[in-house]
Each structure stands twice: as structure tokens, then as C-alpha cells.
Amino acid sequence: MNSNFLVEYAGIDNLNEVWAICTEIAQSMTYPSFFCCGDWLKASAKNLCPDDKLFILLAKQDGCVRAVLPLVSKPNALGGRDLRFLGTDFYPDPIGLISAQHYRAKCAKAIREYLLNVPGWDRFILDWVLGDELADWNLPAKSVSVEPFKILPRDFADLLGEFKQKKRYNLRSLVRKFLEAGGELVFSVDKGTHAFFLDALFALHQKRAVERVLDSTFEGGRVEALHRLLAQESRMVRFYGLRLHDKLIAVIYGFEFCNRFFYYQVAHDPAYGDLSPGSVLLFLALENCCSKGVTEFNFLQGDESYKGIWTNESRVLYRCDMKRGTWRSHLFSVLDQSKELCKRVRGR
Questions:
Q1: Which of 315, 281, 277 is nearest to 299 (CA)?
Q2: Is the same domain home to 216 and 164?
Q3: What is the spatial distance between Cα 25 and Cα 21, in angstroms, rounded to a whole number?
Q4: Is 334 in contact with 134 (CB distance < 8 Å)?
Q5: Which residues contact 190 (CB under 8 A, 6 or more apart)?
Q6: Where is the BioF2-like acetyltransferase domain (predicted)?
Q7: Rounded to an integer, what distance in angstroms lies between the CA atom of residue 299 and that of residue 4?
Q8: 195 and 136 within one domain
Q9: Among the listed residues 111, 51, 80, 75, the one whose alpha carbon sits nearest the alpha carbon of residue 325
Q10: Structural domain containing residue 51
């Protein structure tokens, strides 16, 4: 074991203290992510699947917590258990070891060695990790998605100035059309309006999913409970909305952490498609973020075309994993290799 760093399991009796530590350390991460702060982790921990078990590890040096790895032990397809980052069911990104960069490599090594001596799991999986952390884990990894983002200037006009004149004109025309129809940008300002905006978001999302015959990941009891808890308790929750004739027709839901906006979910009423509510709301939300001094707009994972209107920059997200040497983990390895072989054959 690493003599400088002691890894220990965090019991459930002091979780509020652990969440506070996560929020504090997350601010010093190479990339401070909302999904590594205590608000998100606490809400995720309160909305586990019935067979899930918390498995939170602390890496300490001289009694001080230098890193937190909040995991969940989950049943896998072969009857064993996998260790995954807490909240992964709800598609957060980026995630990773909650540690300042100068401690991260040593803490990752200590945690890796600790896990190999702990029974009861087959695979340790980290989804949606940024590339700069991969070397610290020294584990097999593959790219799984991209995360578009936009570094914001203080003046929104400077952002628009990056576009060609025709593109600027088209965007402004969409906004002007909406405003001339009597629409306006609105915000949530407290927990009471958070609940109102969240209700509208769920309703609009469901309406659009039905129209497009889509299976949505933003529905179900656990999803709703998690986001209602966040809306009630987290000061980092933000909502932007478009109101037309006293009706919310579009909502953006996200989180503001370390001067970054994490764009988590959006929905708009398809009945108002002629007013381009999705494009208008994104324009006005970006404008507001610039005016407040937010330095980055993180679109989160996915390369949807509308994100490309605003940015051509993105970070690659990776999945890394460690197998413990059980028969289940060996079988998972064989299955993974077979899948990769099939992909290569189909790609010929």
C-alpha cells in the first residue's frame, strides 16, 4: 500500500460532512465539475436503485482528506457487482476523482491498490472522465463521447462578433420575432419558482418526447425525485424560460458552479415551433451568462447540431475500468473484445 496516503471507507453516519468536503475539494479540481460537488452527490445518494449500495472512499494524508471517490456498488448482468461513480445513472459529466491536481495521481494509485484488496466486486468503472486524469489511474480507457463547451467573453457582442454577418443577422432576427410576438425571458429566483419551472420542464419534455416517439432518460420516479430535491436544496440550480402570453413555452435547466454554467436539460413546446423557442432561449441564456460574468457554458455530452451553432470546441470524455480477476470479470473482458471485433468487421 502507499504509505503516504491512507484509504478508508466513509460510513453513512457522516455523509453530510463528506458532501461538504466534496464541494470544497471540487472547487480545486483541474476542471471543477458540478457533478463532483456535494449537492449533486447528496441528491444522487438519496435516489439509488433498491439493490444499490453506497461505497464512498476517502484518501487521507496525515489525517487530512485529499481525495474522495464516491462510488455505488451495483448489480451487474452476470449476478456480481460493479463499482461506478455515484449519480452515473443520471448522465453527469464530467466526473472523476475529487481531488486537487497535485494530490490526484498519488490518491488514484492508493485507491486502485486498496480496491484490489477489497472483495465483492467484479469491475470498477469510471464513465465520462476527462483525458488529463487517465494517466493518474493507469487503466485501460476508450473515448465514449464529447462535451462541447464555449468560453464566454464578458460582452455578448464579442461572442456574436465571432460569427459571420449573416449568421448574426439570422440569430437576432429569431429573437426579435419572438419578442415582437409578446414573448420575454424569465428566470427562477427562489425555491418556489424553481418548482414551477421544473414542473414546466417535465411537462414540456414529455410533450416533445411523445410527439417524436422518443424514449426519454429524463423521466421516471427516481429522475423526478432527484431533480426536485436539487431544486429545493441546491443554491447552484438555475432555470431560464421563455414566457408567451403568461405561458412557459421553453425551459433550460442547469447548474452554476465555479463560474461555469452546466447546461443539463432543455425542453420547448412543439406547438410554438414557428417561433424557434429552443434557439431563442439558448441565445438569451448565453447573453445572460455573459452579462453575469460566467466564464464557460458547458453544453455537456452529445454532439447535437444545435450546439455546433455556438461552438466548435469540445472535450473528449473517456471510460476507464479495472477488473478484479473474478470469473465474471474475465467473461466481461471476452464479451468486450467480441464487441470490438464485431465493430471492426462491420466497419470494413
A1: 315
A2: yes
A3: 6
A4: no
A5: none
A6: 166-307
A7: 38
A8: no
A9: 80
A10: 6-143+320-347
Its sign, for the CA torsion 77, 88, 120, 331, is: positive
Length of the chain: 348
In-domain check, residue 277: yes
Give the Cα separation of 107 and 136 in Å (integer).
9
pLDDT for the residue numbered 329 = 92
The CATH number of whichever domain residue 192 belongs to comes to: 3.40.630.30
CA distance 143 to 317: 6
Task: Kindly give the pairing relationship between strand 123-130 and strand 183-187.
Answer: unpaired
User: Which pLDDT band holds residue 251 (cuts at 50, 70, 90)?
Assistant: very high
Q: Report yes or no on 300 lying in a domain.
A: no
Locus of grid cell 464485431: 342
Number of domains in the chain: 2
- Cβ proximity of 70 and 30 under 8 Å: no
Question: Which pTM was predicted?
Answer: 0.94
User: What's the rounded mean pLDDT across residues 145-169?
Assistant: 96
Per DSSP, the three-state class of 188 is coil
Q: Are residues 340 and 220 in the same domain?
A: no
Label residue 6 exposed, middle or buried (CB < 10 Å: 0-12, 13-18, 19+).
middle
Residue 260 belongs to some domain of the structure: yes
